[in-house]
């Protein structure tokens, strides 16, 4: 069950409870599902009971108790646990990883984009950018390299969520396009219509000597209010460098595909009983992260999410291929598909940040 399907399942549970007379509410248009927060459990959690408590005239925990039986018996749902004031924590059955992996591989690097096939409904809920109605988002930044790079990344993320974007800057150096791949649509004062001002803390040193990929990461990985570090640590090919870990995890996933082809088998989504739950949760959360990054004009959220995906994937990747005299089996094909899905998410996220995702590293 994918996040989009689970969201629909939650809404169907609400509708059944309403039809049975156990809840007197208007069924909402969307239900948000996301990885459980602190104190939660399972694969996903939803705050739908908290959302419905006031219109239902009942405490959130009671609303959750009403909804739980309508979720427990659904195919693909293994268990539902109530925590906190009324969160529904949902554990999925063994087929869940296969459905998620199939969804990611079908969409490719556009997984999580608003215009991608079968784009999940959940990202449209709390964090969706307020722009898919055809209006133009106007981003304006000062004559500052970090501001221009951040605005360029914000524009890429907004466009992936269906927005039309125009970027202007008070000043722009042409070498920035050649060195970092950034562009603006106009140079001069802020436009007459109120723009969204992009003004992160400036970099303390010139990042151009780092090269395009490391420089963009150095400027985008910290939150806008944090001062970026500009140093050779972003070029280090070692575990302590987050950019290296992200790109290495992507390259390793691509290498596994090549190695599997040499062994005569290819990826095929299927059950992975011992799949790392941290990895599955991070992959399933990718659409929400993209929507939140667009809504809050914060590409740093994507950078940190990619680090989480890479850190969850790296321990799993060495388990994918057959060992010794093992012959490739359905389990190996399913593991390879999960590894490819992780690589796909990493490649898509790096692309949105304007950073290359090499197949060899």
Molecular structure report:
With 361 residues, the protein is α/β, with parallel strands linked by helices. Helix content is 44%, strand content 9%. The protein has 12 helices and 8 strands. The chain has helices at residues 3-19, 48-56, 60-72, 96-107, 145-160, 175-180, 212-220, 242-263, 277-284, 286-295, 300-313, 330-352; strands at 33-34, 44-46, 77-83, 87-92, 136-141, 164-169, 186-187, 196-197. A 4-stranded antiparallel beta sheet has the order 1-2-4-3. Helix 4 packs across helix 12 and helix 5 (145-160) crosses helix 10 (286-295). The longest helix is centred in the C-terminal third of the chain and has 23 residues, at 330-352. The two termini are 34 Å apart. Residues 117-133 have low confidence and may be disordered.
Keywords:
single chain; 361 residues; alpha/beta; four-stranded antiparallel sheet; four-stranded parallel sheet; 12 helices; 8 strands
């Amino acid at each position: 069950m994918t996040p989009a399907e689970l969201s629909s399942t939650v809404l169907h549970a609400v509708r059944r409870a309403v039809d049975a007379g156990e809840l007197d509410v208007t069924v909402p248009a969307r239900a948000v599902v996301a990885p459980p927060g602190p104190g939660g459990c399972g694969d996903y959690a939803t705050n739908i009971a908290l959302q419905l408590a006031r219109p239902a005239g009942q405490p959130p925990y009671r609303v959750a108790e009403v909804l739980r039986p309508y979720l427990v018996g659904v195919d693909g749902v293994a268990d539902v646990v109530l925590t906190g004031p009324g969160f529904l924590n949902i554990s999925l059955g063994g087929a869940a990883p296969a459905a998620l992996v199939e969804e990611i591989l079908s969409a490719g690097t556009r997984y999580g984009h608003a215009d991608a096939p079968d784009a999940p409904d959940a990202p449209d809920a709390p964090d969706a950018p307020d722009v898919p109605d055809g209006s133009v988002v106007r981003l304006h930044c000062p004559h500052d390299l970090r501001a221009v790079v951040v605005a360029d990344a914000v524009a890429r993320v907004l466009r992936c969520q269906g927005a039309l974007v125009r970027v202007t800057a008070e000043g722009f150096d042409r070498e920035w396009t050649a060195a970092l791949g950034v562009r603006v649509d106009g140079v001069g004062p802020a436009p007459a219509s109120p723009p969204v001002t992009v003004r992160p803390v400036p970099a303390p040193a010139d990042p151009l000597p780092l090269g395009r990929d490391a420089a963009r990461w150095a400027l985008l990985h910290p939150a806008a209010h944090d001062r970026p570090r500009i140093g050779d640590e972003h070029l280090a090919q070692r575990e302590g460098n987050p950019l290296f870990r992200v790109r290495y995890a992507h390259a390793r996933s691509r290498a596994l595909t090549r190695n599997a082809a040499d062994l005569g088998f290819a990826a095929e989504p299927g059950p992975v009983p011992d799949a790392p739950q941290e990895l599955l949760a991070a992959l399933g959360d990718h659409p929400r992260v993209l929507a939140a990054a667009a809504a809050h004009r914060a590409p740093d959220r994507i950078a940190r999410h990619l680090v989480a995906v890479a850190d969850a994937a790296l321990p799993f990747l060495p388990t994918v291929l057959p060992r010794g005299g093992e012959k490739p089996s359905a389990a190996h094909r399913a593991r390879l598909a999960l590894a490819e899905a992780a690589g796909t998410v990493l490649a898509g996220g790096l692309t949105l940040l304007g950073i290359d995702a090499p197949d060899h590293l």
